[in-house]
Design goal:
Helix content of chain B: 25-40%
Number of domains of chain A: 1
CATH superfamily of chain B: Vaccinia Virus protein VP39
Oligomer: heterodimer
CATH topology of chain A: Growth Hormone, Chain: A
Largest interface: A-B, 20 and 25 residues
Order of helices and strands of chain A: HHHHHHHH
CATH topology of chain B: Rossmann fold
Helix content of chain A: over 70%
Largest sheet of chain B: 8 strands, mixed
Number of strands of chain B: 12
Shape of chain A: elongated
Radius of gyration of chain A: 19 Å
Shape of chain B: globular
Number of domains of chain B: 1
CATH architecture of chain A: Up-down Bundle
Order of helices and strands of chain B: HEEEEHEHEHEHEHEHEEHEH
Largest sheet of chain A: none
CATH architecture of chain B: 3-Layer(aba) Sandwich
Distance between the termini of chain A: 28 Å
Amino acid sequence: MNAKQARRPNNQGPQAIPSLLVVSAAFVSGFCIMTIEMLGARIMAPYFGGSLSVWGSILTVFMLALACGYLIGGKLSANRPSLLNYALFFLAAAILSLPIIFFADEIMRPIFLAVEDPRYGSLLASLFLYFLPTTILGMISPYSVRLLVENSDHSGQKAGLLFFVSTLGSAAGTLGTSFYLVLWFEVNEIVFGTAAALALIGVVLMIAGTRRGHANE
Amino acid sequence: MSDRLWSAVFFLGLFSASCLAAETLHEERSLYRDITVTQEGNRRCLVFNVHRGDRNQTCMNTADPERLVFEYAKMTFAGLLLNPNPQSILIAGLGGGSLPTTLTKLYPEAKIDVIEIDQAVVNVAKRFFDFEETVNVKVAVNDARVFVKRAGLLEQRYDFVILDAFTGDYIPEHLLTEEFLEEVRAIMSPDAVLVANTFSTSRFYDHESVTYQKVFGEFFNFKLPISGNRIIIARNEALPPRGELNAVARSLAPRVEAFGVPLLEYPNRLSTRVDWDMSRRALTDQYSPSNLLRDN
């Protein structure tokens, strides 16, 4: 009986969440997180050098941001999850990535002037440059799980699938960026590419969400 | 088959024999690399990442420590032909400290700032390579990019700048870009000379040359057949005529002879000929995949 109930939403056609779309979106967000993270050191090297502590700053900020994002995303997913909200995460992440392209110098210069120790300088600069977009990208993971989960029996399986896909995306983003993208494009072009990809996913999700809304009326 | 096996055994034997001949005086793993100090006869060497078979960073003849061992270290002194009396010297990359040690003997009055990212290298240079910090010779443990940027803000000026920062692999990417060279140019006094130690490796060579040319215009390219290094000598002003270089070489040569520097041979080796592909892209902070370019 439980199993029968679980299958019901899938049979309702237009109401079902298109899981391929959510899974693809999770892949892209995983890819983008690591692309920005890999470029982080390159972006900060002109001000804070290439020492190990610069990597330490970047990784710390990314981990903190993802931690916050998971918490917030999970919380938001409890309150009437929808594809439209999900789409907004992607659009917000795209917009919040833009300062990395357009205001990197404006953000790093005053920090370089104020903080003499490159360790704390790079930590502060990482916070300002990467914390917000990465937090938003972190919110996507738990929210994706919620959109895919139809009942608690399958929740672990769906979560596993999503972690698998988004971490696979992260691996692809790390390798792709460090092996190839830096050879083909300028740093800003790559960041712009990730912002564009996130925005595109956001728009597609929004269209899918709007259609679903109409179908439900 | 057995021939190949025997030759393998032979080379293995040769390899282990060469390892045995060089005694390891010191080994340490720093934040950035594995550092090894070896001694083979009178030759004491500082080696980075020895397990990957990388080359010596610097060597010293312990029987005659004044005399420079490596050709590239001697070649660096060609920069003096453009500014024979430097008073404020900046050196990025300490290694065993042979450059600051020699320069402070030549110019005891000159202020020398050395930038070295790795504290362990500073310790090893002091302990095994007779490097000393003095009133005039100071080491800053810092990233060269950070040091130079800050020196620019503080409006410090140097009249002799040596770029010799290497990892076990090559020059760090952020020390190869047009923006970095502009920052270096900004801390050079009008008569200052820049000496950069690079490799004469193929595809990367073009990008590097294009970048230096973009920032400094025409520069002297200094290569010797016996060395795999290419020394770039540049300055803000136009390059001096060769006659002037020869005159300086004649007056300076006796002073550098003790260090093993054949300065009289150098003026004719300084070339302004473009031997690189000028259509290559300059390296910038936005585009500097040097570690990827080098292998291609």
